[in-house]
């Protein structure tokens, strides 16, 4: 997925750009859902970091949590991102969130909110 610099854009333009990036990777997501996801995301003013990538994937799963099969697809992408970034200082925090998402996928809990983990 692309994570284009959008720190210079007004909110509507930023949301449009991020929505298109999301739908290009996951065409199963409607444009309305993609806009909702994009509104949860902050501006991107640097090269993509683990935090930026994790946040977008997490937000996609949060909004799409009504569809566990789709969440599984995004979750697999999240796990691959974590594997590549295992040396990142925030890895442990994000890994713990991923464990709670796995519990959600195994029907052991509701979808986790970041504040809970």
* Main β-sheet description: none
Q: How much is the radius of gyration in Å?
A: 14 Å
Termini, distance in Å?
26 Å
Strand content is under 5%
Tally the helices: 5
The assembly state of the depicted protein chains is: single chain
What is the number of beta strands? 0
Q: What is the approximate shape?
A: globular
What's the SSE pattern?
HHHHH
What does this structure look like?
By secondary structure, the chain is mainly alpha-helical. 61% of the residues lie in helices and 0% in strands. The protein contains five helices and no strands. Helix 1 crosses helix 2, helix 2 packs across helix 3 and helix 4 runs antiparallel to helix 5.
What's the structural blueprint in terms of helices and strands?
Elements lengths: L10 H15 L5 H10 L9 H14 L4 H17 L6 H15 L12
Short description:
With 117 residues, this protein is mainly alpha-helical. Helices cover 61% and strands 0% of the residues. It starts with 10 loop residues before the first helix and ends in a 12-residue tail after the last helix.
Defining traits:
single chain, 117 residues, mainly alpha, 61% helix, globular
